[in-house]
Amino acid sequence: LAGEVERAEYVRELSGRLGVDPSALAADVRRAAAGRRAPGARTVSARPEAFTVPSDPVWGSKAYLEVERALIRLAAASSANLSRIATEIGPDGFRVAANRELLAMMCRGDQEGRSVSYAELVDECPEEIRDYATEILSAGGVFETETDGLENTLKTWQHLGIQHRLGEIGPEVRKAEEAGDHERIRSLLDEQKRLAEALRGKRTLY
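Given the sequence above, the corresponding structure tokens read:
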């Protein structure tokens, strides 16, 4: 009985955060609870590395971290979004471990042919990232499925990746100059020009 009361309170709180029908959410939670492992089966640890922000000036920037969170929300919003993000970025393309884990969970569910609801996704999360998942899914834009929203977010992710690579090229050019590797220098400068033009929208990357 205590577990049912706790679950009902959980459903009320989560439905309010996500803005969904409490009765439908309750059904999702019951299904998830029926299939979850027995209490105590999860190993709970702080796992601070799951939330470690990269020290890199681009990957650790607020702009980039917000893009990752937006991509997780978009992936959770529809199977089409998930497929596109998994194909173009994949879990390994995320720099924050918690986001990699969330996308990998959604991809597994999709591969198994099941649609994972917001409640099920949160409930299936390892204990240490569950609050984080709830926070992401309850943020603005959780129901964003418009093509423009996904396209703009993917484009921003790509542009930040270009900025990161441009930051790497300078030191690589200096290293090639020290080694007298003129072929490497030309290759790097060509790449730098191509990426700079792509960033300005004058050409595509591929």
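Residues 31-46 have pLDDT under 50 and may be disordered. Try to locate this feature in the token string yourself.
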